[in-house]
Amino acid sequence: MAYQLSSGSIRNREGVDPRLILVSDYAIKRTVIDFGHPAYGGIRSTEDQQYLFKIGASLADGINDISDHQIGFALDFFPYVNGRTSYKIAHCALVMAAFLEGASRLGIQLGWGGFWGGGPYIEGFTDMPHMYIPKEFR
Ligand SMILES: [Zn+2]
Q1: Angle, vertex CA 32, rays to CA 135 and CA 88, nearest 5
Q2: How far, in Å, is the centroid of ligand 1 from the Cα of 42?
Q3: CA–CA gap between residue 105 and residue 108 (Å, rounded)
Q4: Contact (Cβ atoms closer than 8 angstroms) between residue 18 and residue 44
């Protein structure tokens, strides 16, 4: 099944590091389940980041702790299953697999927030919809 990003998803990823766009383009063609890029999933202003911190949606306050989203090195996705967004681990992992396959094929060093805190099945903070370029590869 080949999927296509919506115009909203394409808009939401505008301005991020070009490597993230390349893997996103690859992943949408190869993924076994549909996904999109949410509002705030690409580039965020300081105000956006402060807002997300305030409502508990991000750990970075945007001033002392700068999010990778503020500097264009992160791109979030949302799995889209049976007509609705799903953040179930299995769905996030399938989308992640398409991203990592793309990274491998394209020679792009890509990180996944789902590995944070020891991985999604271990208690701790993970960020499963979060793909990023690791610091050592910027
Ligand atoms: Zn993110």
Answers
A1: 70
A2: 8
A3: 8
A4: no
Domains of the chain, CATH where assigned: 7-137 (3.30.1380.10)
pLDDT tens, per residue, the chain with 138 residues: 689 999 999 999 999 999 999 999 999 999 999 999 999 999 999 999 999 999 998 889 999 999 999 999 999 999 999 999 999 999 999 999 999 999 999 999 999 999 887 777 776 778 999 999 999 999
The CA 36 to ligand 1 mean position distance, Å, reads: 13
What is the rounded CA–CA span in Å between residue 74 and residue 112?
Answer: 10
Using the mean position of ligand 1's atoms as its centre, give its distance from the Cα of residue 46 in Å. 14
131 CA to centre of ligand 1 in angstroms: 7
Task: Compute the distance from residue 38 Cα to the ligand 1 centre, in Å.
Answer: 10
